[in-house]
Amino acid sequence: MNESAPLAVELRGITKRFPGVVANKDIELRVARGEVHAIVGENGAGKSTLMKTLYGMHRPDEGEILIDGRAVTFRSPADAIAAGIGMVHQHFMLADNFTVLENVVLGSEPTRGVRLDRAEGRRRIRDISDRYSLGLDPDTLVEDLGVGDRQRVEIAKVLYRGATTLILDEPTAVLVPQEVDELFGNLAELKREGLTVIFISHKLDEVRKVADSITVIRRGTTVGTADPATTSAKQLAELMVGAELPTPQTRTSTVRDVPVLQLRGVTVSAPGGRALVDDVSLTVREGEVVGIAGVEGNGQAELVDAVMGLRPLAAGSIVLGADDIATWSTRRRREQGLGFIPEDRHRQGMLLDAPLWENRILGHQTRPPAVKGAFIDRKGARADTARIMREYDVRAPGPDTAAVALSGGNQQKLIVGREMSASPRLLIAAHPTRGVDVGAQSVIWELLKDARAEGMGIVLVSADLDELIGLSDTLHVMLRGALVATLDPASLTPEELGSHMTGAGSTAGAA
């Protein structure tokens, strides 16, 4: 690093307040040109607020932003983009029915006269793809791309707009190990071309592998910087949360002989007749965690929807305990002991503008403490929400706080607390620790382990391969809607599992 060269990004004394909370306080950040600079911190530490400030989504109350040594004021993301700042969000913002070309140029279309100049757009995208080894075909429909390729489209979008500093928010959250390696190869190409990457992640081993330097944020302020070459993941975790890095490894087997869920020939079809879930059969016993692995888009979400009663079956049966529940409503399934941690907490798990006590009763509105007689029991719901907040470490001012004011990790802990409080016979846990920090992750893992030990059956769907291997008693792999492998987690590596998920592994494994 050239010590005399101006920094790509420098934040000095950044403070940002919201009603009732100081999200960032006196933040300092120094990012050299041409480096991958990681920012780590637990949920609610202020990382997202800081990056939104840098990207012009809101203005700081105090402090200043310098880009290449020059003080700037961003009033909108357009100002940040004009200054060379681009952001790739954790949740991709792509139109499936558009091509790569149409997604990349949208909003910045090259024109010839009044018409879209597709040839020029195609030329520029191919140039970007070749220059940074992105491997993109401008004419491919986005709906035909895998998760890793979609992420590269998002990177191409910001490069197309001239970004020289890229903010990547949790870029590996949904990638298998092979795709993570490909992404890191892409980042190496960006560095070689002199671009700068700000890399936000909860996966500390990955941070140490890809980053040139690390800034640690805790409770809204910077607590230090670290050299990934000399700092262990455990040391980073301690800087972040004051505790060692948790592991998902389970204790001794608690599997009992009693089946709690049996799927036989479960098939779910798309409107055109194509099988989204293809003849799936599996059994979950009391005290057993059955993991389901697969690259996103291979039928896991549709299988979860079918078990929850959100999608009709084209064929097969779903037996909960001794009852075939295939024709039951979602409400009846919930009342008979089916718990649900949804994949997308914002779309399926919460009402963001509603207070926490109202979110506590979602899905449980026919049972105490949500009701007394025929009416909602507001007092009881508030009191139980306060209990969940204490027992599950949900950090918020109180039960009347709007859910939108909580960090992602605290939102997730509220959902987990809500579902566990109903003592379900079977818990469907879809990506239960996605986008949460090591502290919240540790809490959720321990809750799942405790529930398993008490006899709860758990179906675990996750993109975190260490989580799947560590928590599962039995592990199935889904590919194109079908179960293609049943594996023994005790003798499995993430690389082997990733190979099965992409179809490169053998189609049978040790059960």
Automatic annotation (TrEMBL):
<feature type="domain" description="ABC transporter">
    <location>
        <begin position="261"/>
        <end position="505"/>
    </location>
</feature>
<dbReference type="InterPro" id="IPR003439">
    <property type="entry name" value="ABC_transporter-like_ATP-bd"/>
</dbReference>
<dbReference type="InterPro" id="IPR050107">
    <property type="entry name" value="ABC_carbohydrate_import_ATPase"/>
</dbReference>
<keyword id="KW-1003">Cell membrane</keyword>
<protein>
    <submittedName>
        <fullName>ABC transporter ATP-binding protein</fullName>
    </submittedName>
</protein>
<dbReference type="GO" id="GO:0005886">
    <property type="term" value="C:plasma membrane"/>
</dbReference>
<dbReference type="InterPro" id="IPR027417">
    <property type="entry name" value="P-loop_NTPase"/>
</dbReference>
<feature type="domain" description="ABC transporter">
    <location>
        <begin position="9"/>
        <end position="244"/>
    </location>
</feature>
<keyword id="KW-0813">Transport</keyword>
<keyword id="KW-0547">Nucleotide-binding</keyword>
<dbReference type="InterPro" id="IPR003593">
    <property type="entry name" value="AAA+_ATPase"/>
</dbReference>
<keyword id="KW-0677">Repeat</keyword>
<keyword id="KW-0472">Membrane</keyword>
<dbReference type="Pfam" id="PF00005">
    <property type="entry name" value="ABC_tran"/>
</dbReference>
<dbReference type="GO" id="GO:0005524">
    <property type="term" value="F:ATP binding"/>
</dbReference>
<keyword id="KW-1278">Translocase</keyword>
<dbReference type="InterPro" id="IPR017871">
    <property type="entry name" value="ABC_transporter-like_CS"/>
</dbReference>
<keyword id="KW-0067">ATP-binding</keyword>
<dbReference type="GO" id="GO:0016887">
    <property type="term" value="F:ATP hydrolysis activity"/>
</dbReference>
